[in-house]
Amino acid sequence: MSFTVFENEKLKEKYYLINHKSGLRVYVYPKKMSTSYAAFATKFGSVDNKFLCDGKETDLPDGIAHFLEHKMFENEDGSDTFELYAKTGANANAYTTSDRTVYLFSAADNVAQSLEILLGFVTHPYFTDETVAKEQGIIGQEIRMYDDNPNWQLYFGMLSGLYVNNPVRIDTAGTVETIATITPEKLFDAYNAFYNLSNMALCVCGDIDCEQVEEVCDRVLNYVKAPEAERIYPSEPDGVYKEFVTKKMQVSMPMFFVGIKDNECPMSGRELMKKRAEYCILLDLMFDKSTDFYNELYESGLVDSSFSYEYEGHETFAISEISGCSENPDQVYKKIRDHIALCKKNGFSKEDFERIKRANYAHSIGVFNSTEDIANELISCVFEDADMLDFPQIVADVTFEDINNRLKTAFADNAFTLSTVYPQD
After folding, report:
1. Is the separation of the CB atoms in 329 and 303 below 8 Å?
2. End-to-end CA gap in the chain
3. Is 415 helix (H, G, I), strand (E, B) or coil?
4. Is 252 in contact with 404 (CB distance < 8 Å)?
5. Quick one: 359 exposed, middle or buried, by C-beta within 10 A (0-12, 13-18, 19+)?
6. Pair 155, 3: CB distance under 8 Å
7. Are 171 and 63 in contact (CB under 8 A)?
8. What are phi and psi of 37, to 5 degrees?
9. Dihedrals φ, ψ of 351, to 5°?
């Protein structure tokens, strides 16, 4: 067996890459913890709705990546995948994001047996007209649940305001109308284009070694030559589609979600990791609960403890997000914009920068205390052409000058959207 070792001697963290003969990249992260975690993922998410393959351009219905995730748990022999996992004692799940679909399980023991189940059902698609029609009803109900979820509506309201053409503005689940057009043929089109093993990765983190993982892969996986799918994304202007997006729902008080579009996309690898580290430090400097700004908002009653923020950086889109509850979201929005403008004018103190950077460095190391966090972070980095072991040092290497330079280019005046949900009359 041949494998590549990735190691950070300073952190005393190490994992292995097996380039399996099937074409799958297999990552094994030995970790002596009570629970092992496996993630089998494809680089196929909600934004991948148009592609070119063998000279043919294919358009996929909105929501098909999420629909496909649901359908993969059905087996041709009628067996229930979750019942198979129950026999090994594993806890299984899956999720779809804008840029990937991940099938996963966590288990205290019988990891190899659970891994065989995972690799088996994801590599054996089974779709019929009858099962697709049944799933359309199930996911239709799920979509209607999302329609009644204020946090979901806030988030996608923000995305629909920020982006003009980028498909990230479309709900991951699609709509009842778009999923109604999904057929077994379209599911196979998507599966064959994006579920080929060369577009996928497996990460197993826990009390298991490379030999055990490779043995399971050898038994379950076969090499299948697959044509390469070229993703087609529309061009996206710098400005937002709409600055204000609002809805009325059954909530007790108004909720807000401020999105600030990052126009420096696409980006990947260490470049993306460095930008992510800088934005995280920047947002902490401006909005952390230790700042005067937050405390003024809180003490005046404009926000409550639900106030939060984060930077979401991906290859095809990136945004800064600030959210919470307030009786006056418009006033909070104005204060956020004024505060950012003031920070751009006056900058930050070096003392605050050093303190915030140390906290971010500590957080970057904390990821290695959980097999679940390790596996999911490793999968994300693999698809972004980056090494997760590099990130703590990237954070440590961020300079005060880097932050000031990033502040100059970030948070453009035309990049803001306020999404709100107000109580029904």
Report:
1. no
2. 66
3. coil
4. no
5. middle
6. no
7. yes
8. -140, 135
9. -65, -45
Q: Would residue 78 be called left, alpha or beta, if left means φ above 0 and alpha means ψ between -120 and 50 degrees? A: left
Q: Is the peptide bond before 266 cis (omega within 30 degrees of 0)?
A: yes
Q: Is 145 helix (H, G, I), strand (E, B) or coil?
A: helix
For residue 178, how many other CB atoms are within 10 A of its CB?
19
DSSP one-letter code for 54: T
- Residue pLDDT, tens place only, 335-365: 999 999 999 999 999 999 999 999 999 999 9
**AA identity, residue 345:** K
For 363-408, write each residue's pLDDT tens digit. 999 999 999 999 999 999 999 999 999 999 999 999 999 999 999 9
Q: Strand, helix or coil at 109?
A: coil
Of the candidates 120, 36, 9, the residue with the CA atom closest to the CA atom of residue 75: 120
Q: Which two tokens stand for residue 190?
A: 């998507």
Classify burial at 260, counting beta carbons within 10 Å of its beta carbon; exposed 0-12, middle 13-18, buried 19 or more: buried
Told to judge if 299 belongs to the known catalytic residues of this protein, a careful annotator would answer no
pLDDT in tens, 19-57: 999 999 999 999 999 999 999 999 999 999 999 988 899
**CA–CA gap between residue 188 and residue 54 (Å, rounded):** 15
Q: Is 99 left (phi over 0), alpha (psi -120 to 50) or beta?
A: alpha
List Cα–Cα distances, 394 to 14, 214, 275, 276, in angstroms. 17, 32, 10, 10
Q: 151: helix, coil or strand?
A: helix
* Set 7, 13, 57, 69: catalytic member: 69
Looking at residue 80, what DSSP letter applies? B
pLDDT tier at 1, thresholds 50, 70, 90: low
Q: Residue 24: which of 241, 202, 185 has the closest Cα?
A: 202
∠ CA 50-56-57, nearest 5°, is 25
Q: How many CB atoms lie within 10 A of CB 29?
A: 22
Question: Any idea of the CA torsion for 237, 242, 244, 248, to the nearest 10 degrees?
Answer: -130
Place of tokens 């064959």: 192
Query: Measuring CA to CA, which residue among 199, 226, 189 is closest to residue 56?
Result: 189
